[in-house]
Write a structure and sequence with these properties.
With about 120 residues, this protein is mainly alpha-helical. The protein has 2 domains: about 70 residues, Winged helix-like DNA-binding domain superfamily/Winged helix DNA-binding domain (Arc Repressor Mutant, subunit A); about 40 residues. About 65% of the residues lie in helices and about 10% in strands. Strands 1-3-2 form a 3-stranded antiparallel sheet. α3 crosses α4. The longest helix has about 35 residues. The termini are far apart.
Length: about 120
């Protein structure tokens, strides 16, 4: 199978494909939180939350630190820079294609109005 994304982007986009994990990122954007508090906030089991956090950790989007019995989560340092750059490059590609399509449609409309005027 052909791979279009680099492995780090694969991990990030896979991690962000889940609404709960996006919610965790949003929550951590407001401040660090323990896995227990995140589990309570999202009304899920501690085991379920640990699995979501592990996916985010593997992608580098979240880092955790254990102090005593509490594991605290915070946003990863790299942020979403590479992901944002990939999205922006493709947004520009789509934009260029839609502009070209708009030009073709305008030309076709112009030709159609010229034909009816004759």
């Amino acid at each position: 199978m052909v791979q279009y994304l680099s492995p780090p982007l694969d991990l990030s986009f896979a991690a962000l494909s889940d609404a709960t994990r996006r919610g965790i990122i949003d929550q951590l954007g407001r401040g660090d939180a323990s896995i227990t508090s995140l589990a309570d906030k999202f009304q899920m089991t501690l085991t379920g939350m640990k699995k979501h956090v592990q996916v985010l950790e593997r992608a580098g989007l979240v880092v955790t630190q254990k102090v005593g019995r509490v594991r605290t989560c915070k946003l990863g340092k790299h942020g979403l820079k590479a992901e944002a750059e990939w999205i922006e490059a493709h947004r520009k590609l789509f934009e260029a294609r839609f502009e070209a399509l708009d030009e073709i449609i305008s030309e076709m409309k112009q030709e159609g109005s010229d034909d009816t005027a004759s």
